[in-house]
Amino acid sequence: MTSPVPFVEQIAAVVDASLKTIAALTSSEEVAQATPALVGKKSALSQLKSSMGSITDSEERKSAGQALHAAQTSVDAALGAKKSDCEATEMAAQLLREQIDITEHLVSGTTRGRLHLVTQATQRLEDVFIGLGFQVAEGPEVESDFYNFEALNMPKSHPARSMWDTLFVESEEPGSVVLRTHTSPVQIRVMQNWPPPIYAIMPGRVFRRDTPDATHMPVFHQIEGLVIDRNITFKDLAGTIEAFTKAFFGDDFTSRLRPSYFPFTEPSAEFDIRRANGSWIELGGCGMVHPDVLRAGGLDPEEWSGFAFGFGIDRMAKERHNVEDIREMYTNDLRFLRQFSS
Amino acid sequence: MKILLSWLNEFANFGTDTETLSDALTSLGMPVEEVIESGSRLQGVVVAQVLRTERHPDAEKVHRVYVTTDGANELHVWCGAFNMSVGDKIPLATLGTTMPDGRQILKRGILGIDSEGMLCSAKELELNEDHGGIFILPSHLPLGIELFDALGATTDTIFDIDLTRNRPECWGHLGVARDLAAHLAIPFQAKKINVQAAPVHKVEINIASQDACGRFTATVVKNIAVRPSPQWLQDRLSRSGMRSINNVVDASNFVMLELNQPTHAYDLNAVSSGFRVRFALPQETLITLDGATRELDPTDIVIANGENTAVGLGGVMGGLHSEVTDTTTEIVLEAAWFPADTVLESAARHGLRSEASARFERGVDPFGAEYAALRFIEILQITCPDLVVCGSSQVVANDTCPQQLTQITLRLSQVLRVLGVSLSAPEVHELIGPIGFVVADQKDGNVLVGIPSWRPDCASEVDVIEEIARHYGYDALGKSVPHSPVHGRLSSVQQRRRLVHEVMVEAGWCEAMPNPFLDPFATRLAGIDDSAQLALVNPLVAEESVLRVSLRPGLLRAIAYNQSHRVDNIHLYEVGRVYPRGASALPDEEEMLCVMSVDSDGQELSALSTWNLLVDALGIGAQIDQKNPPAGFHPGRSATLRRGKTVIGAIGEISPVVLKQQGITGRVSCLELSLSTVLREEPKAVAAKTVSRYPSSDVDLAFVVPNTVSAFDVHRAVRQGAGALAVSVDLFDIYRGKGVSDDSRSLAFRIRLQAPDRTLTGEEVATARQKSIDAVAKLGAQLRA
């Protein structure tokens, strides 16, 4: 009979075979499959471990134990290293395989919708005035003669009524119902319904009997401001216009007031704003609320005073976006509307 | 209004700095729209005389003209026009002259022979449009002098100013000059006029209707001759936008442009019997100066002669038959004051807005008549030096116009209160004294202010304060920002409206703004009841002559427009008002949302999905009533949104009949919702529920549901059946086809069951499942096998 192979040599042979097997593995899947045979309970090393009990010599057993531990460590390490290698290789391959062209997904895609330019401008204006301590009031678009004219210091057959080309709506009393020619009637409604002090803006749709052209529409939008308080002066009007100008257009814009005439304010003014380049844009009209208008609103002009101002919203939108022809804003052509993200 | 610098300079020395003057006018409330330089300032064109002409054998289109500018030396010019004869006076542009078109006249040779200037047509000199030949000048013009001096032509600077209604006095140059001089602190002087009056020629004046005329003056002038006005006067008129007629009419217009006082000159023969001022008689007619026969209204002011025959429409236009003619030698000048309203209405009624009526309707100085008559005579004397004035103006007046200056008490405290600056009585005087206001200090904090008669617009304390502000300078008043004691914010309705916009925009919809005016048939053609539709009384065009009662016709039109321009992916919405006839005088305005999209066949109806988004965002709800499809919608693919009996909107697909009529292809889905209703409903803040930490169980159930039973109802039944343990019920599959009969479809729901405080038992889950099945069964739907 052949002499038994020394234990240590057996270990060496197993390690050798295991390392060869490990070296031949090419994927994490193969690693997983091979793992039980290499380091599992039924692996050659485990079997050697369990046969160690047959070694009687304590010295010999000790050295065999040490050799076995070293063998186990080296096989574990090799297997672990192989596993990491395979996983890294496979991940690299996956990443390569999964490559896409991100821009394919960006070339065209869903966009948000759009607010109409007038709504965008209105909201911006509202936000600026809210910041200045104003609230937002609304009123009917179809108005009575009283609110649109009479309460605004334009009694029947007042010549100044011809300043607005009025559209009339059929009514039992002919001429008594109009499409409001300005947002000013809301002033009266606010004075009648809100207890002063009043700091309000009144945006809305207005109507004039104007043939449409590049700068006029029969249906357009205005914003009106009204301040009623004790001791409000013309200076406060000029200061508020200036504060608004800077808040809305920018710090390098300034404003000026110049004398004008409106039946519902006195003194009346036009206000212009000056761009940074020195050019002036005519913006709107304003003035101290006329005592007759305060009275029509149910307020005592000896106790309360105030100012009002108003201007066109459409024109602001037109200026901001360089719209050449204001009619274009009302064709509802999506090719036009989609240009302006809100 | 055209204001001439030369004219202003007759009242004060304003100089020539047009930019400063423009700015000053603008800051006084007379914004200058345009500054026009009028008249030629061409230098170097002189009067020459033709000595002889000569052809050159090699030049066909031009000939040689020899001229002289001093009667001695001969100049040679090539010329392409042949209309001159020897001895004619013609304009010669001398060498070095820059022509109006920018060309410079150079020594230019033809066939090696130099030209020593250029002969000019009237058009080349911009005198008129005549380019038919060389301008042949009047033979009396002296040789060698500058042409424009020789012709007596003038130059001027025209300020085109935008006048507001409260400044009637600025319709005359005098008014503008007074205001401007005060602003610039330049001495201002109205002209003093002295006219020698000869023996009186009495004219009877009778104001028969006091309300028709407040003041009437008549001035008789004899020994005149009707002829053209001098060139400078004609230039003044044409630059002011008026035509020169003859010296008499021109003098009248000149005075009007200067003093804002219309006057009218009659042939004395037509009114020798006197004047009778009254309202028109029934059926009375008058042929006005423009040749039109006017049927008069009993509120028209009539100037009649002593025989009571109408000779003029008071304040508007004179009559043809009393007109001054070429043979007139004696005239009567009317200078009167008529009430503004009456003239305004009269001019409007006859569609005859004359220079005179435009002034009377704004307000003319009631005391300006006599001065205007004197100025008229002074101007007429230029062409009629031998005229005879038959006494001073004869005046008849009554209380229809103010008989004395208006006086107003001005509180200095009120000046401070309105303008924010404190002014003393002397300071007030300094500001408004120069423009004719008479300021008397009452020493009690008040001043008494006499309003100048030419400022009829100034009638109250605040009117005077405005004048003070104007001359103090709006800019000089300063600026301050009032501190608002109010919290600036949007109301709940306004915030919720913005939320609607946000939802729509986030979901990819574009906001449209269709015209709220519609064609009278548009609503009916959209299948919508138009019985509450209101019409405009004076629409611009018939296609935009009624107020909308629905937003749908406008959006349908927008869709058709986009389709016709090959735009796809149409998703539009509008937030706007409708104006149906109401119980009161004003319509019942209602704010609506309308959402409309074009969907391809077989695709989701995209407008429908917005309802769920809005329900979620606004915290609102409605019954989806498919049994009563809304008008104008596809009857099998739509529902009314209602709360009990109240309809708050409509949802579904627009009727193919309507689409066909509008020329729209594809399917159009639509949501219409009353924002007036739902924006007002502010939901309460949601109370938080703790999320259960216990496991949940899912139960999937598929039902065969007849088409007549709505998914909504099945969903509700499943949920109610499952009871409080159901945390969600989702419809995850809809199936039609094999295995399901044609009149039904399969609806599959996933119910997630979970208790807040325990793990559910199998029994609890089974019970919930069975109860759901039972509840659905009551609707006539069975669990799918």
Radius of gyration of chain A, taken over Cα atoms and rounded to an integer in Å? 44 Å
Mean pLDDT of chain B: 92
How many domains of chain A? The number is: 2
> Shape of chain A from CA axes?
rod-shaped
Relative strand content of chain B: 25-35%
The helix content of chain B is 10-25%
The CATH homologous superfamily of the largest domain in chain B is named Phenylalanyl-trna Synthetase, Chain B, domain 3
* Largest sheet entry of chain A: 7 strands, mixed
CATH architecture of the largest domain in chain A: 2-Layer Sandwich
List the helices and strands and how they pair.
The complex is a heterodimer of chains A (342) and B (785).
Chain A: H1 7-24, H2 28-39, H3 44-51, H4 58-97, H5 117-131, E1 135-136, E2 142-144, H6 145-148, E3 177-179, H7 185-193, E4 198-207, E5 219-229, H8 234-249, E6 254-262, E7 265-274, E8 280-289, H9 291-296, E9 305-312, H10 313-321, H11 334-337
Parallel strand pairs in A: 1-4
Antiparallel strand pairs in A: 2-3, 4-5, 5-9, 6-7, 7-8, 8-9
Helix pairs in contact in A: 1-4, 2-4, 5-10
Chain B: E1 2-4, H1 5-8, H2 18-27, E2 32-38, E3 45-56, E4 59-68, E5 75-79, E6 89-93, E7 108-110, E8 113-115, E9 118-119, H3 147-150, E10 156-161, H4 173-184, E11 197-198, E12 205-207, E13 215-222, H5 231-239, H6 247-259, E14 263-267, E15 275-279, E16 285-287, E17 293-295, E18 301-305, E19 310-313, E20 317-318, E21 331-337, H7 340-349, H8 355-360, H9 369-383, E22 388-390, E23 394-397, E24 406-411, H10 412-419, H11 425-432, E25 438-441, E26 446-451, H12 461-472, H13 492-506, E27 510-511, E28 517-518, H14 522-525, E29 546-547, H15 552-564, E30 571-578, E31 590-599, H16 606-618, E32 623-625, E33 633-643, E34 646-654, H17 656-662, E35 667-674, H18 675-678, E36 697-706, H19 711-722, E37 726-735, E38 744-753, H20 762-777, E39 782-783
Parallel strand pairs in B: 11-22, 12-15, 27-30
Antiparallel strand pairs in B: 1-10, 2-10, 3-4, 3-6, 4-5, 6-9, 7-8, 13-21, 13-22, 13-23, 14-21, 15-18, 16-17, 18-19, 19-20, 24-26, 25-26, 28-29, 30-31, 31-35, 32-33, 33-34, 34-35, 36-38, 36-39, 37-38
Helix pairs in contact in B: 5-6, 6-9, 13-16, 19-20
